[in-house]
Amino acid sequence: SKAATCTFTTLAADLGVVVREGSATWEAAKAAVQINWHTDKFSAPENENMSGYYAFDIKCPTDLTAYILCTTSSYLNEVFETSEQRIIEIENEASRKYDGDYVPTDPETDQFIQMPDWVDDSGTVHEGQLMSVYDFYVHGYPTNGFVTYFASGMHDGGHCTSLEGGVCSSYVRAQQNIDKRLTIDYWKEYIANNRGSLCKTGSVINKGAEDLLAASKPYYENAKPLIYENNGGWLYMEQHYAKGTLDDNGETYDDVYVVFKDKQGNYYEPMCFDVPSAF
């Protein structure tokens, strides 16, 4: 959910022939959307200031690109005056460049991977921390409630919001972020920024950087920028920041919005799917 104040994008985008809500084409597309709610995961984490958390699987027609955004109806309907403005906002949010991080596990032991222990200039040993590895999502981040789900084979001109000169700049940026984590200079800079007060001599910095590069290399050397392709499979999504109002019965008013775009570049008016009450 967003703050009530917002500056929205002006209508510079070509939305094609907008498929209107209630038309036969629009209704058929909405009827084809399938959502399986993970009601076992509906919860409000203890001691966290949020009203709810929900998760679901979604499946869309494979000939359509889906821009999916979990938000509140009040945000879209009160801030944006027209369907066209809402379409642009949902696409902008769903295509946002986002580097999501998580803690991986060792495939052999299923234990959390840790950075190696390290020694500062005074000889004090510090325990390695749980390693945070980036997935480098290119368009959206489904485990934070927004994503572009590209129609099969359609991550190209007219569909990719980051296409520059025939190349997806978001994809290039993600690949660069992966590549630089395979260099010793990146980890030297990491130590300088995060352990600079403890590691001051060159030999300690070099040794720490070598250890971190060795520990990180297995995750980054085979990593690929992640683009979600709508190939008929289920897409798992989560919303961790639901702040819809809960009434006396614990019902939430947060919604899942979907904007479709067909292969001719025509957009569909936003479709709203109500999050069921499972708190």
How many helical elements?
6
Helix/strand/pairing category: alpha+beta
Helix content: 25-40%
Task: Kindly report how far apart the N and C termini lie.
Answer: 18 Å
Radius of gyration: 22 Å
The poorly predicted ranges are 1-12
**Care to count the β-strands?**
15
Shape: elongated
Largest β-sheet summary: 6 strands, mixed
Strand content: 15-25%
How confident overall, as mean pLDDT?
A: 82
Report the order of strands and helices.
HEEEHHEEEEEEEEHHHEEEE
Summarize the topology.
Layout: H1 24-32, E1 34-37, E2 52-59, E3 65-72, H2 73-79, H3 83-94, E4 101-102, E5 118-119, E6 125-126, E7 133-134, E8 140-141, E9 146-151, E10 163-164, E11 167-168, H4 169-180, H5 184-194, H6 202-220, E12 229-230, E13 235-242, E14 254-261, E15 271-274
Parallel strand pairs: 9-12
Antiparallel strand pairs: 1-2, 2-13, 3-9, 3-14, 4-7, 5-6, 8-9, 10-11, 14-15
Helix pairs in contact: 5-6
Outline of the structure:
The chain is α+β, with helices and mostly antiparallel strands and 279 residues long. It contains 6 helices and 15 strands. 25% of the residues lie in helices and 22% in strands.
